[in-house]
Amino acid sequence: DFIKVFAPATVANVCCGFDVLGFALDQPGDEVWVRQKESPGVTISAIEGICGLSTDPAENVVGIVAQKMLRELDVPFGVELQLHKGMPVGSGLGSSAASSAAAAFAVNELMGRPFTTQELVPFAMEGERLASGSAHADNVAPSLLGGFVLVRSYDPLDVIPLGVPLELYCTVVHPQVELKTSLARSILKKDIPLQKGIRQWGNLAGLMAGLLKADYSLVSRSLHDEIFEPERAFLIPLFRQAKEAALEAGALGAGISGSGPSIFALSATATQARQVEQAIQQVYANSGIDLNTYVTQV
Ligand code: HSE
């Protein structure tokens, strides 16, 4: 009698779109199960696939999201949640976002869809606020809406699903070291030199145009981040070598997935994406660092 919802991992930033751009993968992802209960409020009755996450609804992203929605809807009953983690936390693949998105979608289904999927984004963002200290939407929006999603503005929130016509494949390599988004954000410089800003918004506009005009060359020329990637690269073992290997193997572009440590690369074909995967695996071959890798169509 549970409603079961899957929400996928996501790649946020996509090089030049820090906090404003992300896309969804097919897998991995998390499941949230939900059913009605008579007593009011939210309980988390089980967490599977991972250890150490709190079942206190005020300390777990799925609980926070459900509580916000119940408060908004003012219903005379409560909800029981189960979280089935299918992906590692602190991976840079939007793990907390997938849980938050799945919770928002599941509770909305249970309630008879009072909200559109777009309207669920602010609820899911509350999970991100708990998990990372900042309510960014560049993971939750694509996890909920699919494909590439632009967050044009946070205030007011303006979330644009892009409907990209281009065939793209994503290689994701997750070196198994845990990196907290809050840490990877705390080390960033607060000011951006004008020259770097100009290059960044040129690239972001170029990436948007390339995706929507289905222009691989323009996408490739635009996949750069000269602001945040250099500041974060030291947090990820062998990042520079892995990125170089991906580009040498023919990727259109590569960078840090979200706040890392996962590395993503985009390719025009599935074969290319597999070659990129192998090239990055080679880099880590004798490093003693274990990898999870995923290749999916975007
Ligand atoms: N845009 C966020 C960051 C994504 O880079 O900090 C975190 O997954």
Produce the secondary structure layout:
Blueprint: E1 3-12, E2 21-37, E3 41-48, H1 61-73, E4 78-84, H2 95-110, H3 117-132, H4 140-145, E5 148-154, E6 157-161, E7 169-175, H5 181-186, H6 194-212, H7 216-222, H8 228-232, H9 239-248, E8 253-256, E9 263-267, H10 270-284, E10 291-297
Parallel strand pairs: 3-4
Antiparallel strand pairs: 1-2, 2-4, 2-5, 5-6, 7-9, 7-10, 8-9
Bound molecules: L-homoserine.
GO molecular function: ATP binding; homoserine kinase activity
InterPro entries: GHMP_kinase_C_dom, GHMP_kinase_C_sf, GHMP_kinase_N_dom, GHMP_knse_ATP-bd_CS, Homoserine_kinase, Ribosomal_Su5_D2-typ_SF, Ribsml_uS5_D2-typ_fold_subgr
Pathway: Amino-acid biosynthesis; L-threonine biosynthesis; L-threonine from L-aspartate: step 4/5
